[in-house]
Specification:
The protein is of the alpha+beta class. About 30% of the residues lie in helices and about 25% in strands. It has 5 helices and 12 strands. It has helices at about 5-40, 70-75, 80-85, 150-155, 170-175; strands at about 45-50, 55, 65-70, 90-95, 105, 110, 115-120, 120, 140-145, 160-165, 185-190, 195. The longest helix has about 35 residues, at about 5-40.
């Protein structure tokens, strides 16, 4: 056997032996690392489905999306949709003191140029002084606000953006194992000054 091939075989053998030893040393360390990771708890970002029709975290979505979750809605104690979304940048509700006459304005676009959806159903109704926000805000589970042109995903009219609202269902109101429940809300109006508690 030529000297060149013999030295080449020795190098391959020593490389193989070195790789085997390295694997034996590193595999237990990797397993220990996996056990520690498996036991820890990691909080993840919320996932939105309705805003872009694909499951992505809000931070990964290439659009200006704000999600107002149930906890935030309950903290605001909203008397109207305006109160529920008051922290959303670029969104303003107008239309006077009547809750049902509120009209969203996203970055200067309003009326039919902003799509409003409730539980996936598009709200196209708009008549003079009557708006499209006929919804008790205490029944809101989540509000997704997509700012910017979205006609490709949502069809005609979504030039300004989309407001997608999800309402609560029975599993949101009942504790595990419960079959019946009630929710009570009280308030009063005095020259349109409403107090809630």
């Amino acid at each position: 056997m030529p000297i060149f091939l013999e030295s080449r075989l020795k190098q391959q053998r020593s490389f193989t032996i070195g790789l085997t030893v390295l694997s034996i040393v590193l595999l237990p360390a990797a397993a220990i690392g996996q056990e520690k990771v498996a036991g820890s708890v990691t909080a993840l970002d919320g996932v939105t489905v309705t805003a872009t029709k694909t499951e992505k975290t809000a931070i990964e979505t290439p659009a200006a999306i704000t999600i107002v979750d149930r906890e935030t809605i309950e903290r605001f104690q909203p008397k109207s949709l305006d109160d529920a979304v008051k922290s959303v940048p670029g969104l303003e509700m107008s239309g006077g003191p009547r809750d049902t006459a509120e009209q969203p304005n996203i970055r200067g676009f309003s009326g039919e140029r902003v799509v409003i959806k409730t539980d996936g159903v598009r709200k196209n109704f708009e008549s003079v002084y009557r708006g499209r926000t006929f919804l008790e805000p205490s029944l809101l589970k989540q509000v997704d606000v997509l700012r910017g042109p979205s006609s490709v995903l949502y069809g005609t009219g979504a030039i300004g953006g989309v407001i997608s609202m999800q309402t609560v269902d029975a599993k949101d109101l009942l504790e595990p194992g419960e079959t019946i429940g009630a929710q009570v809300r009280t308030g009063f109006h005095s020259n349109n000054s409403q107090k809630l508690g």
